[in-house]
Amino acid sequence: MLTAALRSSSSSSLLRRSWQRVLPASQRGLCSSSIVAGSNDGGGDRRSLLELGEVEKILTDVRADDVKVIPVGKRCDWVDYMVIATGRSTWHVKNIAEALIYKARFVKQKQKGVERMMLPSVEGQEEGKWIVVDSGRVIVHALDENARAYYKLENLWNSDPSHKEPSQDLAKAFVKIRPKNNSKKRVQTSA
Amino acid sequence: MIQPQTRLNVADNSGARELMCIRIIGTSNRRYAHIGDVIVAVIKEAIPNSPLEKSEVIRAVIVRTCKELKRNNGMKIRYDDNAAVVIDQEGNPKGTRIFGAIARELRQLNFTKIVSLAPEVL
User: Fold this and answer.
1) What is the pLDDT along chain B (122 residues), one digit of tens a residue?
2) For a tag site, which of A16, A183, B33, B39 has the least CB within 10 Å?
3) Residue B109 near residue B36, CB atoms below 8 Å
4) How far apart are CA B60 and CA B19, in angstroms?
5) Entry's HAMAP family (chain B) (predicted)?
């Protein structure tokens, strides 16, 4: 994966430079903090998005296995909590997602009584392998056991926040290594 | 601005290294694809001993383009290469890890799975 790391590190460093070049022009008109705000912050009252406590309650009601809540606020600015839950079968995974949507749509919308509300978006609902319910600052991942073992999401988010690509040691990169001679031909050593 | 015959890098660890776009999914007769569009691509180069092999036709979603991505607040994001992430018919990424920074627009386009695997979201 070294070449992949090299490619992505060079592209991201150059990206930051090209990103900064364009930014000063836009700073005149708008405040730069609008970048972080994203498009999810529409008005705090009009959303029927799910909070962390409600998500946990629903997951215990549905009897999802192995629920893990990972606070990723420190390393990601676009989400605060990732919740991972496992379903025992495809139907169970779909059921978890539907329970969350039901709670958001019927319970909270009836409570607040506003017509236009931002519902959490769902991805992957037809195929019950990995369903993501995205409600703003909390994202719920409902997987089945194969998918959970395959993607290993806890390893991704539980590692230390300063996890970057392995930094190449510049001193080592320029050391000349004598090529190993695996051929039968004898190397002509200059006399 | 990705069109058929465009070569793209692969930004995940699915096993493919380089893809060539052959079709843009969406409305018929579409000229160019941008970040967040799904394309049909053929694998031109793959890592040995991986589940994906060369000359296999797969779907991918574009995550980085050299053509800048414009936002409503005037910000533009321009990468140094064109890259895509291999997905399956349902939209699940085939690899388990994504490399490089991902633009936030993919979240609105229902690719939250890719955004959640990304190391950095711009």
Assistant:
1) 999 999 999 999 999 999 999 999 988 888 999 999 999 999 999 999 999 999 999 999 999 999 999 999 999 999 999 999 999 998 899 999 999 999 999 999 999 999 999 988 98
2) A183
3) yes
4) 9
5) Ribosomal_uL14 (MF_01367)
Q: Which two tokens stand for residue A156?
A: 């991704």
Q: How far apart are CA A157 and CA A24, in angstroms?
A: 33
Is residue A30 within 8 A of residue A108, CB to CB? The reply is: no
Complex ipTM value? 0.85
How far is A50 from A19, CA to CA, in rounded Å?
34
Given a contact cutoff of 8 angstroms between Cβ atoms, the answer to whether B75 and A6 are in contact is: no
* Tokens 């999914």 sit on residue: B25
Rounded to a whole number, what is the distance in Å from the CA of A15 to chain B's nearest CA?
5
In this complex, is the C-beta atom of B51 within 8 Å of any C-beta atom belonging to chain A? no
Q: Residues of B102-115 as b/e, b for ≥16 C-beta within 10 angstroms?
A: bbbbbbeebbbbbb
B63 to chain A, minimum CA–CA distance in Å? 12
